[in-house]
Design a protein that fits this description.
Distance between the termini of chain A: 37 Å
Strand content of chain A: over 45%
Number of strands of chain B: 10
Largest sheet of chain B: 6 strands, mixed
Oligomer: heterodimer
Strand order of the largest sheet of chain A: 1-9-8-3-4
Shape of chain A: globular
Number of helices of chain B: 0
Strand content of chain B: over 45%
Largest interface: A-B, 19 and 22 residues
Chain lengths: 111, 116
């Protein structure tokens, strides 16, 4: 499974775009990049996933570099409710059932 | 639509008692996971169900823990003879296609278990 590296914490001003980076230099060709977040005292929430093309949904956009060694999750207009820990995970057909969520990035949206 | 639901939301029990935690997954999801999360810690995988296959129990911390999934839907996690170290939030997640397809997991709100 791909080992992912994320900065431990980031701040973002309310209303601005939050760009959360993730390095996954060991990702294999068939592993997807998944993003989840966990707001304090709640269960984790699935955000988005992608393989090689950029993806967008109602929550966020995912930009994956051409070499697939890194990606960026973009929250286009961060709100205070986006304050959470964000996790980047590499998952593929050979990934076992035990997903390692790691320590993630603690994003604080500042009013 | 309805998400994953769990009950009870909070459970306080005395050391040595048995507890049952319930998870109702999203309808049609074939995969179901149980995790626990201690205060300030990451997610700890407990058990995984996929369709009618034998569950992956490799994460269960001791034989006091067991889980079943009836009819491929509702799941119950049972902890026998609870210990104080069992205190944690127990999270259930379901996934639409399990091991061979989409792996996105949708989590329930969790059950906060406190063993006194």
């Amino acid at each position: 499974d791909a080992k992912t590296t994320q900065p431990p914490s980031m701040d973002c001003a309310e209303g601005r775009a939050a760009n959360l980076p993730c390095n996954h230099s060991t990702i294999s060709g068939n592993e997807y990049v998944y993003w989840y977040r966990q707001i304090h005292s709640q269960g984790p929430q699935y955000i988005i996933h992608g393989l090689k093309n950029n993806e967008t949904n109602e929550m966020a956009s995912l930009i994956i570099t051409e070499d697939r060694k890194s990606s960026t999750l973009i929250l286009p207009h961060a709100t205070l409710r986006d304050t959470a820990v964000y996790y980047c995970i590499g998952i593929g057909p050979n990934t076992g059932n035990q997903f390692y969520f790691g320590t993630g990035t603690s994003l604080t949206v500042i009013p | 639509g309805a998400g994953v639901s769990q009950s009870p939301s909070n459970k306080v029990t005395e050391k040595g008692k048995d507890v049952e935690l319930r998870c109702d997954p999203i309808s049609g999801h074939t995969a179901l996971y149980w995790y626990r999360q201690s205060l300030g810690q990451g997610l700890e995988f407990l058990i995984y169900f996929q369709g009618n296959s034998a569950p992956d129990k490799s994460g269960l911390p001791s034989d006091r823990f067991s889980a079943e999934r009836t009819g491929g839907s509702v799941s119950t996690l049972t902890i026998q003879r609870t210990q104080q170290e069992d205190s944690a939030v127990y999270l259930c997640a379901s996934s639409p296609r399990g091991a061979q397809g989409g792996r996105e997991q949708y989590f329930g709100p969790g059950t906060r278990l406190t063993v006194t």
